[in-house]
Specification:
The structure holds 2 protein chains of 2 kinds.
Chain A lengths: L3 E7 L4 H16 L4 E7 L3 H8 L3 E4 L10 E3 L2 H4 L3 H13 L3
Parallel strand pairs in A: 1-2, 1-3, 3-4
Chain B lengths: L1 H7 L3 H16 L4 H40 L5 E3 L2 H9 L5 H17 L5 E3 L5 H15 L2 H30 L4 E2 L9 H12 L2 H5 L4 H8 L5 H15 L4 H41 L7 E3 L3 H4 L2 H20 L5 E2 L4 H10 L9 H32 L8 E2 L1 H4 L2 H13 L1
Parallel strand pairs in B: 1-5, 1-6, 2-4, 3-4
Helix pairs in contact in B: 2-3, 2-5, 2-12, 3-4, 3-11, 3-12, 5-7, 6-7, 6-16, 6-18, 8-16, 10-14, 11-12, 14-15, 14-16
Classes of the chains: A alpha/beta, B mainly alpha.
Chain lengths: 97, 415
């Protein structure tokens, strides 16, 4: 499987996105899916999506429209219904092969 | 006692490393090796942030000083950003490591006493509450009062988070979330009042601007790199620098805006397992439906918040120049503070960007004056830590909180 590129965004491109990014990296490592995860501010998402061409964009909050699969991952912060988010991430990454 | 003296005299990065190691090992129940790795990352992040801020200040301050001298402009308090707040003022506090478990304990006690419904899992952001501690420590030189100040700040913000929870949840579909963020949530009342006033005028109440159009037109321009570059160039021009030096300023400021989040990531990588561990070990003891307290960053992505933030960037710069008595030059925190401080106003403004924009103007007038008023105290706090700023500084993203300002004022009456 190719290395999957994932972009994680939050309002400031700081703690929140990095927190989510670390959780996703851990999850994908367990699933043995190689990945490269980057963080950014929401306002940078459009430009970075065009330049980095990620396989998936994950966000702590709402996102502007992009033509790449997206997952809203606020649940990873609250701890409620976490598995639903992980499943969605897995689906959108793997089924795009 | 000897231990505490030795500990307090250590260089900031070492002190932080030891403190985080203990908290990580004992409270977050990390394995010692993982606690050590986390501690080193946090300390490394601090060193990195200090390096970045030093580079930035070193490039900008000489030019700024000459501008101030030649034009008589009075914006001498330079906004060095939240990164500098963390690495110069907050994390190097001798007693910062105590604040983490104290903060968690206070939250837990408040929950059991039913004084709050919010469980603030965002332990990283305890640093915002700690601004009060930094101020009070300068004023009283007493660790005890500094900790008291922290607790009062935390309690006030948790209460505000509870009050604002439902409107925020309804506006953004964020179930079970509240925002105990020291700067964002405290400005919610401004949103309430502005909205109430605007609704009195049928003409004004009708105005509504579209977030999508604003984001499309201006979103591309308002990137950290471009804002930084433009600010640097403007500084170079106003400072009558040579063309080469001006371009260099543009690149340096832009570089700071781009690199600083990457360095901050190192710190975050370290503190996340500690914060998560602390949270997991406490979550099991609650049997009630609680609001999960999150960073206001989850709001900043919302189109209305972001669009309002974008519009407020040039306005904040303008305000800085025209407000009589303001001494703050918004710089490092421009792109960060603008959506942040107005984020909790938006639900009360019915997500109407025009109303949010007006509220934002009021917010930043207040913010600039509070930052001006606390600048000396803030700069003294850094000096007291042994990590002094090159010249008088602030950070709009964090010093703008009225809660810390009020607490500092109260304590100054007694000392």
């Amino acid at each position: 499987m190719n290395v999957k590129k994932i972009l994680v965004a939050c309002g400031t491109g700081g703690v929140t996105s990095k927190n989510i990014a670390m959780k996703i990296e851990k999850y994908l490592k367990e699933k043995q899916i190689p990945c490269k995860v980057d963080t950014c501010k929401v306002i940078e998402v459009r430009e970075l999506t065009e330049s980095l061409k990620p396989d998936l964009v994950v966000s702590a909050t709402q996102l502007p429209a992009v033509n790449v699969p997206t997952v809203k991952a606020t649940a990873l912060l609250t701890g409620v219904n976490v598995n639903k988010v992980y499943d969605e991430i897995y689906q959108k990454l793997v089924n795009k092969q | 006692m000897g231990f505490f003296q030795w500990y307090g005299s250590l260089p900031a990065a070492v002190m932080i490393m030891i403190g985080i190691f203990i908290v990580g090992w004992v409270l977050a129940r990390l394995k010692p090796l993982n606690a050590l790795k986390a501690a080193i990352y946090v300390a490394g992040g601090i060193i990195g942030l200090n390096t970045m801020v030093g580079m930035f200040a070193g490039a900008v301050i000489p030019v700024l000083s000459s501008v101030i001298q030649s034009t008589g402009m009075n914006l001498d308090v330079i906004d060095l950003g939240v990164g500098s707040a963390q690495s110069y003022v907050i994390f190097p506090l001798k007693f910062y490591s105590i604040l983490l478990p104290v903060g968690l304990a206070v939250n837990i006690v408040m929950i059991f006493l039913k004084w709050t419904d919010t469980f603030d899992v965002d332990i990283f952001n305890y640093y915002v509450f700690a601004l009060s501690s930094a101020f009070v420590y300068v004023e009283t030189n007493s660790v005890m009062w500094a900790v008291v100040a922290f607790i009062i700040t935390e309690m006030a913000v948790l209460k505000l988070a509870d009050i604002t929870a439902k409107p925020i949840q309804d506006a953004y579909g964020l179930e079970g979330v509240s925002i105990p963020h020291g700067n964002a949530v405290v400005y919610a009342p401004v949103g309430m009042i502005v909205n109430w006033l605007i609704e009195k005028s049928p003409a004004l109440a009708k105005i509504d601007w579209s977030p999508e159009k604003i984001e499309e037109k201006f979103g591309g321009m308002v990137q950290p790199s471009t804002i930084g570059f433009v600010m640097g160039i403007v500084l170079g021009i106003v400072g009558k620098q040579t063309s080469g030096a001006t371009l260099n300023l543009g690149v340096t400021v832009a570089a700071f805006m781009i690199i600083f989040p990457k360095v901050l990531n190192i710190l975050i990588e370290g503190i996340t397992p500690v914060a998560d561990g602390m949270r997991e070990n406490t979550e099991k003891r609650f049997h009630r439906q609680l609001n999960i307290g999150l960073d206001a960053a989850v709001l900043v992505g919302m189109p209305d918040v972001m669009a309002t933030g974008i519009l407020l960037i040039p306005v904040t710069i303008l305000l800085a120049f025209i407000l009589p008595g303001n001494r703050v030059l918004p710089l490092a925190d421009l792109a960060i503070a603008t959506p942040f401080l107005v984020s909790c106003c938006m639900p009360y403004c019915k997500k109407n960007i025009f109303r949010g924009f007006i509220a934002g103007i009021v917010v930043f007038i207040i913010a600039l004056y509070i930052c001006t008023d606390t600048a000396e105290l803030y700069t003294a706090a850094a000096a007291l830590n042994g990590t002094p700023f090159q010249s008088i500084s602030t950070s709009i993203g964090i010093c703008s909180t009225p809660v810390s300002w009020i607490i500092a004022k109260i304590f100054s009456l007694f000392h």
